[in-house]
Write a structure and sequence with these properties.
The structure is a single chain. The chain is built from 8 helices and 16 strands. The protein has helices at residues 18-30, 42-52, 69-73, 80-88, 113-121, 129-142, 201-205, 210-213, and strands spanning 35-40, 58-63, 91-100, 103-105, 108-110, 149-152, 155-156, 163-169, 173-175, 178-179, 191-197, 223-227, 229-233, 238-242, 245-249, 252-266. Strand 14 (238-242) and strand 15 (245-249) form a beta hairpin. The longest helix is centred in the middle third of the chain and has 14 residues, at 129-142. The protein is globular.
Length: 272
């Protein structure tokens, strides 16, 4: 009703796997399409959107995931029909993209407890915010932290000896309304590192409501650093999460920002 109208040539594709979806997205780019609309969660948005980085093809997101951090950040309605309608009149906005060892991410990259949470969540047969909360609680008590050596924009920082939360944010959201980086901007040329030490976790946990009201950055136990490049050396290879998808990565992880590398449809041209 909203997109298949005069002046728009609308085609549908089904992604049968990550590889299949990316191959179809590449063909769409080669065919000169104007816009690719993705129905899915942050992981699907990452899979298809990665193909559109550094092209003129716009990404529109119709949220259908568990957390929908991307959609929440940009104020995209969370019901399919309202999202489709809102995107039709949306503004084309160029946003920054993060990369971790060359792999793009749009929302967050996590290397500590939040990566472990994704690992546990992936084992759940049920999707949604509640199973994610249970996974977070499970990993909170069981996660074993390891020391990180960190360089921020080429400058070595004091050792992160016991990180519990070690999240790089391009957008404000974890998903589900949890604003892990409330001051993050999608077009300022910077990423934000959000860190909580294991020993500070009980005090930070007492301030949990601030994660949802956009004031987490005011909690004394939460430290935030803005940067353009970040190098992390871990004791050994291990998992990281990119936009909610788990990957095994080498002991050293290099994170950088690509300025305004992705064109996105944003209702009203602003953040939610």
């Amino acid at each position: 009703r909203h997109w298949d109208v005069e002046g728009i040539d609308l085609a549908y594709q089904v992604s049968r796997s990550a590889e299949d979806g990316q191959a179809k997205a590449r063909r769409a780019v080669e065919d000169g399409v104007d816009t690719v609309l993705v129905v899915g969660g942050d992981g699907m948005v990452n899979t298809i959107g990665s193909v559109l980085v550094n092209t003129r093809v716009a990404l529109g997101v119709i949220p259908a995931g568990s957390g929908n951090g991307f959609a929440r950040h940009f104020g995209i309605p969370l019901t399919a029909e309202r999202a489709v309608e809102a995107l039709l009149g949306a503004e084309r906005v160029a946003i920054d993209v993060g990369t971790a060892n060359g792999r793009p991410f749009f929302v967050t990259c996590g290397m500590a407890w939040d990566a472990a949470v994704v690992r546990t969540f992936e084992k759940s047969p049920v999707r949604g915010v509640l199973p994610y909360v249970f996974a977070a609680a499970y990993e909170f008590f069981g996660y074993q932290s390891h020391p990180f050596e960190v360089e921020l924009d080429g400058v070595a920082l004091p050792s992160f000896s016991n990180p519990l939360l070690f999240t790089v944010a391009n957008l404000t959201q974890f998903g589900g309304g949890a604003k892990v980086a409330p001051t993050a901007r999608h077009d300022d040329g910077y990423l934000e590192l959000v860190h909580i030490a294991r020993e500070d976790a009980p005090a930070a946990l007492a301030q949990l409501p601030r994660l949802f009201d956009g004031t987490l950055d005011r909690v004394p136990q939460v430290t935030t650093h803005r940067f353009r490049s970040l190098r992390v050396r871990r004791p050994e290879p291990g998992p990281i999460q990119l936009d909610g998808e788990l990957l095994e990565e080498s002991a050293e992880v290099f994170v950088a920002v690509l300025e305004k590398a992705l064109v996105v449809l944003v209702p009203g041209g602003g953040e939610g």
